Amino acid sequence: MSGKVALITGGTSGIGRATAVAFARKGVKVVVTGRREKEGEETVALVRKAGGEGIFLRGDVSREADVKGWVDQAVAKYGRLNFAFNNAGVELLGSVTEMAEADIRRLLDVNVLGVLLSLKHEIPAILKSGGGAVVNTSSIAGLVAMGGVSVYAATKHAVVGITKATALEYAKQGVRVNAVAPAAIETEMLDRFAGSDAAKQSFAAAHPIGRIGTPAEIADPVVWLCSDEAAFITGQTLAIDGGWTAQ
């Protein structure tokens, strides 16, 4: 993978940040994107500390001009794009009957439209670079029902469908498209989602493995899915969930 180029959306913290570092350790040049400049530059600093090379580009994944600009700048800077990790996402709790229209639209704009716009501009660049791989971030809420998060679950189910369909469209053209479906992972998002230490302990107990996962435990499979070791895998959603969906 050394010398290749990866673009990561939602790379300012958590899983995105850990994946940027994991790519860097494989010699992949990393383009980190997101809305928070300070945190994005912190991710790039960690990439360089790991011996890698990278840049941060600020923007919003739900805006097509921003997404196109990221891809164009990645190719202008490094001459190619081989991998993409579409990880940007937001979480807003509440059932469909409780949620404000603005919140529903925000979830759809970031979690669904953001993935579609990313794929729209990443795939042509990857094709021009000779092929490669894309990984999208879904969730266990995209695989099984979860009460109280119906709109969020809808967006993550959508990511699974988008992944399957896009994988079929480009399978013969040398672009593989897969997804990961994490359970509870030790991130800022989980802190917001849980709201308290007691709730986090409850989440931990709900995993058959008996604990919450770490960002690195998602990052390493993402990098693997992009590697030649996963060359016969496309259209799949890998549950990385401590056994949650096996129950």
From TrEMBL:
GO terms for molecular function: oxidoreductase activity. It comes from the Bacteria. InterPro entries: KR_dom (IPR057326), NAD(P)-bd_dom_sf (IPR036291), Sc_DH/Rdtase_CS (IPR020904), SDR_fam (IPR002347). SMART domains: PKS_KR. Residues 4-192 form the Ketoreductase domain. The keyword tRNA-binding does not apply. The keyword Transmembrane does not apply. Signal peptide: none annotated. Keywords: Oxidoreductase. Belongs to the short-chain dehydrogenases/reductases (SDR) family. This is 3-oxoacyl-[acyl-carrier protein] reductase. It comes from Fimbriiglobus ruber. The lineage of its organism: Bacteria, Pseudomonadati, Planctomycetota, Planctomycetia, Gemmatales.
